[in-house]
Amino acid sequence: MKLLLAHAYAIADDPREQELMRPFPPLGLQYLAAFLEGEHEVAIWDPTFGSRAEWSSVLDRERPDVVGFYGHTITRPFVKTMVAEAKGRGVRVVAGGPDPVQYLAEYLGMGVDAVVIGEGEHSFAELLREPDWTPARLATVNGVAFLRADGTVGKAPARALIKKLDELPHPRRGRRDMDAYFAAWRARHGQTAMSLTTSRGCPYHCTWCSKQVYGDTFRRRDPDAVIDEMQSVMAQFAPDQLWFVDDMFTINRKWVHRFCTRVVERGARVPFYVIGRPETLDLPLVEAMREAGCYRMYVSAESGAQHVLDAMRKESTVEDIERGAGLLRQAGIELGVFTMLGYPGEEKADILATRDLLRRMLPEVTLLSVAHPMKGTAFHTLVEEKITGQAAGRLLFEMRHSAELYDVAQRMIWADQDLRRTLSSARLGPTTPASVVSVLRAMARYPYWRARFALAE
């Protein structure tokens, strides 16, 4: 059988990623392709740097028997037309990922034959072995949803998650697939990066986090298996750095110590960065990570107001966040921080508390987002009656303040961070006309946005 796996994501439609420009290929589809290609002919279509307008010609060229879409909030508005084009050619269509699971009726209603719920490898493989995709037969394929004859949504029994992740083949990566990604990274950052994962799942219960694929489980690969993949990636592609996409890299300190020790013992040290929980850190751990090559950790701070963290069920404190940041600094690891504005219960004073927290931490990278609920999360349940519509696939809800205020708040925090970094650099470097101008500009921007924030409601 000929299978075409489609990402349906174009960076041109994602202003946030255009600002960051840290794109990676769809790792989930690469895992799926590697798992299925022993039985089937598998192609991946990734329009990240292209255009979805190419879809018709891709279908004509590949002539697949089945198309598999990976769906998330940004791509949902575009998938309907792409599904219709595939169905118009008599192609069967499957969808997977977090978004289709929450919008089963919508995806199935647009013509998708089956939605894979949870991990895709074994469910998709069994589905492709099934010649008859009638509702009666689909009901026997664990882990899929489908439309019954009466138009209602049916679900087969859930499929058990994969216990031993190391039994999965390495993701199918191709040299040509990486060219556009490497070019984008070099143009913006002067270096390249590739992604790997050491685990699946997260045991924490942050209210805004979607867990439609892996649930609340946490499963981890063997450290040496991860290092084998690292060495394979470095030998084939030679990226300047690696990004471990795990939801939380530092959950199991014993595993992290073992991994770092084996990296050093095997001479596999390469620059990498991760996401970690601040309360999981101690000095021996971060020093071991630095020795193994970790140069930056992103900390999920979210807010400088404790009552907002508590409402999010973060299970961490503002003191934890600051302490974790201090440990990373002590070990010589750069700090990245995720923050969220607009969560229910947050007031203007809490936004200023987040600004003040960032002032004290002064991270190398500050990533800001405005809260939006995803179906299937506790956050969505909390604001379900206040949802007002959608924009770019994301749900909008009646927030405490106007959209303008949150836009101004983001600009204020960015300007504040820029001012402090600029002043810090000026103190350390020589005084030149250019450095004086940059300081003056930074000093002007922050008061402007601070004043705008004070007036906004």
CATH architecture of the largest domain: Alpha-Beta Barrel
How many beta-strand segments?
17
Total number of domains: 3
* Biggest sheet record: 7 strands, mixed
CATH homologous superfamily identity of the largest domain? Aldolase class I
CATH topology of the largest domain: TIM Barrel
> Structural class, from secondary structure content?
alpha/beta
Return the average pLDDT rounded to an integer.
93
Strand order of the largest sheet: 2-1-3-4-5-6-7
Count of alpha/pi helices? 18
| Estimated share of beta-strand residues | 15-25%
Poorly predicted residue ranges: none
What is Rg? 23 Å
Give an account of the 3D structure.
- It is a single chain.
- The chain has about 450 residues and is of the alpha/beta class.
- The chain has three domains: about 1-155, Rossmann fold; about 165-385, Alpha-Beta Barrel (TIM Barrel); about 400-455.
- It is about 45% helix and about 20% strand.
- The protein has 18 helices and 17 strands.
- It has helices at about 15-20, 25-35, 55-60, 75-90, 100, 105-110, 120-130, 135-140, 175-190, 225-235, 255-265, 285-290, 305-310, 320-330, 350-360, 380-385, 405-430, 435-455, and strands at about 1-5, 40-45, 65-70, 90-95, 115, 145, 155, 195, 200, 220, 240-245, 270-275, 295-300, 335-340, 365-370, 385-390, 395.
- The strands form four sheets. It has a seven-stranded mixed β-sheet with strand order 2-1-3-4-5-6-7, with helices on both faces. A six-stranded parallel β-sheet has the order 8-11-12-13-14-15.
- Helix 11 packs parallel to helix 12 (about 285-290).
